[in-house]
Amino acid sequence: xxxxxxxxxxxxxxxxxxxxxxxxxxxPKISLKxxxxxxxxxxxxxxxxxxxxxxxxxxxxxxxxxxxxxxIDAINKSNSGHPGLPMGCAPMAYVLYxxxxxHNPKDFTWPNRDRFVLSxxxxxxxxxxxxxxxxxPSVTHDDLKNFRQWDSMTPGHPENFVTDGIEVTTGPxxxxxxxxxxxxxxxxxxAARFNKPDxxxxxxxxxxxxxxxxxxxxxxxxxxxxxxxxxxxxxxxxYDDNKISIDGHTDISFTEDVSxxxxxxxxxxxxxxxxxxxxxxxxxxxxxxxxDPRPSLIKVSTLIGYGSPNKADTHDVHGxxxxxxxxxxxxxxxxxxYGEFEIPEAVQKxxxxxxxxxxxxxxxxxxxxxxxxxxxxxxxxxxxxTTGKLPAGWADSLPSFTPEDKGVATRIHSQTALNALGGAIxxxxxxxxxxxxxxxxxxxxxxDFQKDTPAERNIRYGVREHGMAxxxxxxxxxxxxxxxxxxxxxIFSDYCRSAMRVAALSGAGTIYVMTxxxxxxxxxxxxxxxxxxLASYRAMPGMLMMRxxxxxxxxxxxxxxVEGAANKRPTTLALSRQVVxxxxxxxxxxxxxxxxxxxxxxxxxxxxxxxxxxxxxxELACIAGxxxxxxxxxxxxxxxxxxxxxxxxxxxxxxxxxxxxxxCRVSIEAASTFGWAKYAVKSIGRDGFGASAPAPTIYKEFxxxxxxxxxxxxxxx
Length: 717
Known about the structure:
Elements: H1 3-8, E1 32-34, H2 57-78, H3 84-100, E2 115-118, H4 124-134, H5 141-145, H6 175-194, E3 206-211, H7 212-216, H8 218-230, E4 235-241, E5 244-245, E6 248-249, H9 258-265, E7 268-272, H10 279-291, E8 296-301, H11 324-333, H12 345-351, H13 354-374, H14 376-387, E9 408-409, H15 410-424, E10 428-432, H16 436-439, E11 448-449, E12 458-460, H17 465-478, E13 483-489, H18 493-506, E14 511-515, H19 533-538, E15 544-546, H20 551-566, E16 571-575, E17 579-580, H21 588-591, E18 596-600, E19 609-613, H22 618-630, E20 635-639, H23 643-647, H24 651-657, E21 665-668, E22 682-684, H25 695-702, H26 706-716
Parallel strand pairs: 2-3, 3-4, 4-8, 7-8, 10-12, 10-13, 11-12, 13-14, 14-16, 15-16, 19-20, 19-21, 21-22
Antiparallel strand pairs: 1-7, 5-6, 9-17, 18-20
């Protein structure tokens, strides 16, 4: 029975009537469909994909079934998980991990390894099974048995911060695909920047498996469009075309021609009609993909839950264990004579990639050594990117400011910082979502990363905030020395939020440059004026939310952001459209503490009043402090550019700055007052939406003024 026939008539024919193949030799007639436009590229590694020497077809099929049953058994044991994808994707995943990919399980940090991203992260037992079988120490036999359990190395979705050998954390559908685009961008950039006619230092592929859900999510379309535009020819994506989602068969909501869409994006597309048994078709598709200069989508039609007599090709197998009876029926159906978690000895030998990986890495190390000797300056930059060791004195590139320096918007100060850091840090790269002239994010000393100029470092993301943020995370996770930034208006961080959250979760040290940070946007009105955004990112675990007030604080914020990136911590910078003066008391060093005194009574001294502010409103707090001090009050003005860093300083420092026994504590910030109650007795801000008018008018009408702060302080004295 053909797959198309099964899908068309699945409601009429019980799955128990389907004859499943248990050996690769029993394969139906299959066709391999390709797009017509093919051009051969030169200078890239494109060796044939073939069965390992001395490994029989039976051993290969047993390897594939081992992948399936390790997933089935682990999910049954945990009584939780998604067995359908591992059962259907096992053949393509086998070919990738055992035959196509160059990776060393014993050194998951090898810079020139092929990368793999399981964008359909719910099927993670597929990857855990593969990692165990191919020799990764991070996934032991016992780890497979502890799937989805407390403190397990095999959590419910792939997590790079838990399991060594996982490149990126995936789960939100489509995001892993975007991460893979970022990884492939890095390979193209580094190859263009460092490879020489006589020395190929960077030469690897990025592979990914995505599902129907990934293709439904809009962010994958954003990233696919960019990958085609950039010509990321060493990105090879397998689309698991099983036509099942949680709701049922995908034809209830998803009937487009996915391959045609990718053709339009500028991808090379192929279709493996039967991904269940035709291993050779999968091999040939990879070989064809490697010969084409475009990114490649290989649509592989599979039967979700392949081998299950009663649940294959149904949504029942998508996200629930098979159960004891169906597992036994599946074992019988696939002629699998082994017990729970049992791996045949021949499979263990056939699947282990440790020796192969060590040999590949050793060969590359020879190339690296010769390159280091012949091109020491280039190699030093390359090493900075791949190891994360930043050049000595990089922070000295960030200037300092005095009140005599002309005031500008903090987005302009941000531009100064970006250009300084771009010249000081080899791995500093980034760009904006079609707002570079407004975000002020162009590094003037570099050109644009494009298909034909991939060595450049300004990235043009276009109007694609969601895809941009996830691609930027992929860049950050490629190597510890890549300092990846991306930018848009702060209001549009809502489009980026899911990717920003995963960055905070997974230790992607991306810098999110968010300008036009408040009602100070003015005439564009409430659709473009952030209100709740500062509070929401302060509530996000693992995220540094920075709102600097002037030049010194912006430089200090960038220093912390780069250090945070090096320590796997993302930063969001909220930067102003409106001009601010350089204040007398601000310092780069103060920013590192999250909050510090900028005016008035020193920390630890008795006070009548503590006034707190951030960003553009710190100036208002200083003016209010001067007015109260002129009336004989002991006033301390505190800048609070980063609450998270302030909370890390310890009780003594926090109490010395904002004493709990001081009843006159007032904050001012042109945003939601949510959260300020932790520090302030009264808060001046805006808890409703903004308005369309000149910024000074909006501030006055909403009562966000120095006089309002003075009045609030007096009411508490």
